[in-house]
Amino acid sequence: MAYTFYPGCASEATGKASFISFEAVVKALDIDCHGEIPDWNCCGATLVANAIGDFAQQAIAARNLALAEKEGKDILVACSSCYLNLAWTNEKMKTDPDFKSQINEALGAGGLSYNASLQVRHLIDVLVNEIGLDKIRERTIKPLEGLKVACYSGCQTVRALRRPDFDDVEYPVMLDRLVEALGATAVPFPMAARCCGGSQQFTNPELIYDLTGKILDCAAENGADVIVTPCPMCALNTDAFQQKIAKLKNKEYNMPVLFVTQLMGVAFDLKPKDLALQYNIVSPYQKLAKYGVKK
Amino acid sequence: MTAANNQASRYDPAFANELYSIENGHYIKQCMQCGLCVVTCPARHLMDLQPRKYFKAIQAGDRDRVLKANTPWLCTSCNLCTVRCPRGIPIIDVMHGMKLYLAQKQGVKSAPGALFSKTFFDVMLKRGRQWEAWLTQMYFLKAGPSAIKDALKMMDVAQPMVLKRRLPLAPAKTIKGKSQLKKIYEKAAALAKEGH
To answer: Which value does ipTM take for this structure?
Structure first.
């Protein structure tokens, strides 16, 4: 299957390491990915619908679908919030004819239309169900033996379509399987699809301290060395807020947070520049040293 | 006015009907008060009215309680209540509709979440993409002096982010189709208004 990529705004800032390691892993696995959707725009994240309503946000998200349809390839998304907005809008375009005609009326104001011919796929889905764990096992040069991983799928990753999609909506397992194909151990992690607090860092910070704190506690209690996630918001909250939460709760954490493609890069023995570990706030070097990772 | 009259005027069916007619508002009628959303919601402990009571207050037309409640602003969009609701209410969509309604009714400065969402949208529409460092500055500028204290409390988080280049201070890319995006938005907003 051939894809065009939707990077999302986080790929240019808070989730830069996701973007860099994604590109390297795509290359390493020969995924047929033909660059970015030309001139893609912000999907609206979890915030724009609050300001303009669902329909108008979905019209904005649909501009990306229309631009991708011109390329004629399915859309690959790594960010969970972008996945939700694009995949859910796409689902409605495919299943609700009134919605489709209204969205197309809005797109028409910009000279675009979308015939709902594409699939929107999450990176985890494509890696596990299309590329396959065998190929990922085969490509693994440095098996991550002994590394205990809390696989944090994130909430929007598995609930974008509000029904079982490529994984269970409450207890996802695909990320665990992927991480185990790299030779690591996925520890029990009941918080795998629980919320980190999302984008409320400024508006309700105590919610982030509380929810992200619970995620960190759960990972630590289950003996994880690192947290792995595909989601830039999960990664931001668990990594950038970790020391602050430790201080507020009078606890100590040493829980590096890696994007799944960063961990794959370690197992695939990719170059340090492809791993993009210099963006990590909690240093992962000590825990990854035995797999040949150097600063 | 007598006490009985006061009590009677607290519940206003016209208010319930007004909210049933906002975007996604009609779903509120479906709530049967089972409370599954309450045990599900990760933000319930911070809510004035947990989702079940919030929906009941809307159904009852309890205007004051509904307008004062912080409930929708605490929704994180995690979608867990939406996949669990036995009546199939897309609670996340209802919360979006309520937030839009409240921001229009009470102004974007009535809640931090309203101001942050509006600022996020303004930056995004102008550039076509988000630029977090700019968004943060704009938000605190608009929020006024009282928010500066909150901003300072976040310096311990922001500093390593800047050092690790996760919060680039330089402008992010803008898209070529900015005016196209604006036209699509304006048309969509007009269509949404017609539909409700």
So the answer is: 0.96
